[in-house]
Amino acid sequence: MSLDHLTLLQQFMVVLAAVVLFTSFVLLQQSRLVAAVHAFAWQGALVAMVTAIVAVAGDQLHLFFSAALTLGLKALLIPWMLHRLVRRLELDRHSETLRHPALVTMAALALVIFSYWAVAPIVQQELIFTRNIVAVSLAVVLIGLLMMVIRTQAVAQVLGFMSMENGLFLAAVSATGGMPLVVELGVAFDVLVAMVLFGVFFFQIRESIDSLDVDRMNRLTERVDEP
Amino acid sequence: MTALFVTVFTPLLGGLVLIGVQRLSWAGWINILVCSATFIGASTLAIAVARHGVLEGFSFRVDAFNVYLLVLTAFVGMTTSIFSRPYMRYVCDTGKTNERGMRLYHVMFQLFLFTMLLALSTDNLGILWVAIEGATLATVLLVSLYRTPEAIEAAWKYFILCGVGIALALFGTVLLYFAAQHVVTEPSAGLSWSTLHGVSTQLQPAIMSLAFVFLLIGYGTKVGLMPMHQWLPDAHSEGPTPMSAVLSGLLLNVALYAVVRIKMLVDGSLAASSSPHVAGYLLMGFGLVSFLVAGLFLHRQRDIKRMFSYSSIEHMGLMTFAFGLGGPLATFSALLHMLVHSLTKSAIFVTVGHATHISGTQAIDHIRGLIRTQPAVGWGLLIGVAAIAGFPPFGVFTSEFLLLTATMQTQPWFTVVLLLGLAVAFAGLFRHLHPMVYGPMPQGQQPVKANMLPVMVHLGLVLWLGIAIPGFLARWLDRATELISGVHLL
User: Which residue has the higher pLDDT, A89 or B170?
Assistant: First the structure.
């Protein structure tokens, strides 16, 4: 695919999408929670920017609203809530040792390649440059998933979950020019409620196992050996 | 239309009212009242749909397929609320939860029903997603209601796994919308199921099959298909029993409903391509694996609620397989199975709730002599398990028999596998059941105050469906079959 056929705005969008992907890698490797929350906030801001550009390019009014929603929710409100939770749980100085960082990066790279392969069928469509962005957003979703698998700290898992949602927003905006407004509002509402509930759970988990390392929750298995 | 709004929004209203109700004894009755109003609304709606056919408007759509699930959802919600009033009082009295927990329970029960009814009646696939995610959010705090370490672990697992699953489903929905944009001119109609169904043959097959994979994994997590089932036994065993009853009886059905709706679109799109049955084969594969593996898992369970949740996975697998098989007979059997499974399984969970109160534990090894202690509970469990294991003359037998017939017609080799799986599951259930029901009664075991009316009504209905399916219901299911498979049966 040749990039020079794209208009300036489209090129800008591809660059921004690449930066979103980059923040995903940052998030994946960040061992300090506060720094990870900041990286997540930047990712949200970038997604909001992509939305605003699509709105300008396509002159679609409702996308401005959606950009404001993303900015408010993903770049300001949720990071602020997470920041406050991290402070209240006294985790600001918490630093997690990452196991096999090189291996994880390789796995994330493999996921990016897989995403490009998975969205290959879309190349037949007339919107050739959307393939790039859909692939990037799928990669962001999958890297978020990877983060939830490898991290054992509850807050880090939630960051992975929220970054998956960022990937989904990016896909919705870049590939389809935004979902219908009512759906977007519903999704935003669900994400917000989920965040509140995650906050409740952090305290419940800490009360229960005196830590937020969810690997220590291992009471429920298929027990056969017990009397 | 009024009936529809009453049905869908009564639980929302009820949930909001229950936030403000302080008195515990009132809350239980209000809960029953709201659920009954919902059920009356759903029944009126069913009559309207039977008279006028499809009901559409305000991005709702009620046709033969979802109207019977709406009635079923409202009905099981009502009977569970009747059961849960004394049950939750008992739980509260034993100090497992407090008044705040009870209020949370009542509010979330109604909100959960609201999300279920919304997911079933909406025409917009985006709203469907929002509602199914909302169902997770409404139930997750209930799973951790007892605040034991196990309950919190189960709730976290449920939240994370279903959250991830449902996120993948949203990606699938985005892809679906993307495919729709090349066909549907009006952008806001791009997620409307009925619009998409009308133009499904023009949707890009490549994008649609990719979207289907994401949607199947996403909603399949909620159906409890292996290997995404991990949350299900934990959430069922650690949450309060009325929650297990509605999760098994309603949530799994609604998730499967979503998968089938999507499959209808994908089938239309792939009809002209080189592999028209891909979606069906995927469903068959996932369904069969879940069915067989869950049957084996039944044998090694030590917790009674965990055991019955594996039985739910097994039956969901069977239904998924039947929908994947396609054809009018298999589809009819799957629809009937959805109905009888929900009725039977929620009756079983209600009985199990009483049984655990009698013996004070959920460990199968310590539940003994139920029939001697309290015949109603013991017989309820025995008959319920006989029904779910597929004994004639209960309804589960009828639907399984129809499915076997359909399999024999199209994929004869799978009949052997299915029969084997049914036998394994049957043995798994009965080896645990026998000592629980008949075994010697432990010293000092006392009967509890139990309301067995919901169980009797459910099992009575399942028996009725097994002996003679009433004409109006058969025609109803037949119309749904025609909608899904294109051919009617009767």
Answer: B170
Q: How many domains does chain B have?
A: 1
Q: How far apart are CA B345 and CA B327, in angstroms?
A: 26
Query: Residue A70 is encoded by which pair of tokens?
Result: 């993303």
Work out the minimum CA distance from A212 to partner chain B, whole angstroms. Answer: 11
| Rounded Cα distance, B128 and B117, in Å | 10
Rounded to the nearest 5°, which phi and psi values hold at B400?
-70, -35
- Please indicate whether residue A143 or residue A176 has the higher confidence score (pLDDT): A143
* DSSP string across A98-166: PS-HHHHHHHHHHHHHHHHHHTGGGGGSS-HHHHHHHHHHHHHHHHHHHHHHH--BHHHHHHHHHHHHH
Residue of B nearest to A130 (CA): B178
Chain B, residues 438-467, CB within 8 A of chain A, namely: none
Number of domains within chain A: 1
Residue B290: its pLDDT value, please?
A: 92
Q: Is B164 on the interface with A (CB under 8 A)?
A: yes
Query: Is residue B80 in a domain?
Result: no
DSSP for residue B182: T
- Top residue of B143, B178, B266 to mutate, by most chain A CBs within 10 Å, is B178
User: Nearest by CB to B127, which of A119, A125, A182?
Assistant: A182
Number of Cβ atoms within 10 Å of the Cβ of B25: 10
Q: What is the pLDDT of residues A141-162, one digit of tens each?
A: 999 989 888 888 888 888 999 9
Q: For B385-396, write each residue's pLDDT tens digit.
A: 999 988 888 889
Asked whether residue A2 is assigned to any structural domain, the reply reads no
pLDDT at B420: 92
Cα distances (angstroms) measured from residue B109 to each of B11, B28, B103, B269, B292: 9, 11, 10, 38, 32
Would you say residue A223 lies in a domain? no
Structural domain of A13: 8-215
> Is B97 inside a domain boundary?
no
Helix (H, G, I), strand (E, B) or coil at B201: helix
pLDDT tier for residue A128 given thresholds of 50, 70 and 90:
low
Range(s) of the domain holding residue B298: 277-490
Q: Is residue A224 part of a domain?
A: no
Question: Looking at the predicted structure, is the pLDDT value of residue A226 above 50?
Answer: no
For B91-101, b/e burial (b = at least 16 CB within 10 A) is bbeeebbeeeb
Residue B125 lies in a domain: no
Q: Output the pLDDT for position A224.
A: 45
Q: What are the chain B neighbours of A172 within 8 Å (beta carbons)?
A: 174, 177
Nearest residue to B125 via CA among B52, B53, B203, B71: B203
Does A3 map to a domain? no
Report the pLDDT value the prediction gives residue A225, as an integer from 0 to 100: 42
**DSSP three-state, residue A87:** helix
Q: Which residues of chain B have pLDDT under 70?
A: none
Work out the percent of chain A whose per-residue pLDDT is above 90: 10
% of chain A beyond a pLDDT of 70: 91
* Chain B environment of A149 (Cβ under 8 Å): none
Please report the residues numbered 263 through 322 in chain B whose beta carbons come closer than 8 angstroms to any beta carbon of chain A.
297, 300, 302
Question: Does B168 sit within 8 Å of A141, measured CB to CB?
Answer: yes
Decide if B325 is inside a domain.
Answer: yes
- Cβ contact, residue pair A201, B156, below 8 Å: yes
Which residue among A121, A148, A219 places its CB closest to the CB of B210? A121
Cross-chain residue pair B187–A180, CB shorter than 8 Å: yes
Is B167–A141 a contact, with Cβ atoms under 8 angstroms apart?
A: yes
